[in-house]
Amino acid sequence: MHYVGIFALVVFTSMLFTQCRSTEDVTIRAGETEIETLCSGPEYFTDDEYFRANAIGESSNQSQSKRSALSNARAELAGNISVLVSGAVDNYFQQMGVEERSEYAERYQGLFREVVDERLNGTRTICERVTVTHDGNYKTYIAIELTGAEIMNAANQRIYNDERLRLDYDYERFREIFDEEIQRVREERGF
Predict the structure, then answer these.
(1) Entry pTM
(2) Is the pLDDT of residue 71 over 80?
């Protein structure tokens, strides 16, 4: 009887420890292998100061692998900024009560696209890792960033140089709405 009680205690304790393991252990299923994506994770997400993007490029040529990764990351960055600008511009004109909103919104968005296209060559690489695959291809993981202030300052200058756009423009209010849009997107995406 005494051995049965000890055995039951050991079984109960082992079940308790098995159930208390972290969820990381539980999420990997049989036949699956967890992989680490280089140059990725919370430290590479867009924040209040920087727009960030990461991408992967693969090629049998190492230089082409890097060019591909950089091109993919820049396209991702431009797309992310475009989404933010579109939301901010729509909210700005809605809150400001500007008539002919769609015409102004298109001009603002076009202006921001031009600024982003010009600034993309000035992105800073914040992470770059190169691996070789089992079949001999090079795989480049890259993360880039571009300062939000640089984009806003360049766009602000262009708006002030356009007499028509300048009429209904309040930089401080636009910046506030733009920052709110960044925060909203970050919360939606969980970062």
Answers:
(1) 0.75
(2) yes
